[in-house]
Amino acid sequence: MYRITWVKKKSKGKMRYYACFRSYILTEKERDLEKEKTISLDIKVPVSNPSEILAIAKMLGCEVTSSMSWVRITTEDTYFRLIVYAVARMSTKKPAKIDKLKSLVVGEGFSTDAWWWANTFINKYKNEGVVKGIGARCLYKPAKAFKLVYNLD
Predict the structure, then answer these.
(1) How far apart (Å, rounded) are the C-alpha atoms in residues 100 and 33?
(2) 130: left (phi over 0), alpha (psi -120 to 50) or beta
(3) 50 near 15, Cβ under 8 Å?
(4) Measuring CA to CA, how many Å separate 69 from each of 2, 19, 66, 135, 142?
(5) H helices of the chain, where?
(6) What is the Cα gyration radius of the chain?
(7) What is the pTM of this model?
(8) pLDDT tens, 60-94?
(9) pLDDT at residue 36, as a whole number
């Protein structure tokens, strides 16, 4: 079982959203202790618009709560596809490239590639991103490599 939750932070007058990908379900007690338990976090990615990830999650058959506060994912393949989308999307700006990324992630033959790329992103984040002040910035180079391979840059 996998879950995506959202974190909202106000920074310089702007609301920023972060997608937190977790590979197990948090209990209420763990949710209260979430700041101390960053080791359970697979990856935390800034997102410009959470509704994009929610729309793709619905396309892939995930359960989204009515309040849209979390997404429950039952298959590993879908979880990896959503991680790849979130990481690649954080540096993709052109609408045509965003549409190409969506069709790639939702497409049939992407499951093995999604597994490899998502594990690359997760390992990079766990090794370098948990350091205070670095976070998701460590994912820009692997995301750039992903976008070059799939002609999204």
Answers:
(1) 38
(2) alpha
(3) no
(4) 14, 10, 8, 22, 28
(5) 28-32, 50-59, 76-89, 95-106, 111-124, 140-149
(6) 15
(7) 0.88
(8) 999 998 887 889 998 999 999 999 999 999 999 99
(9) 47
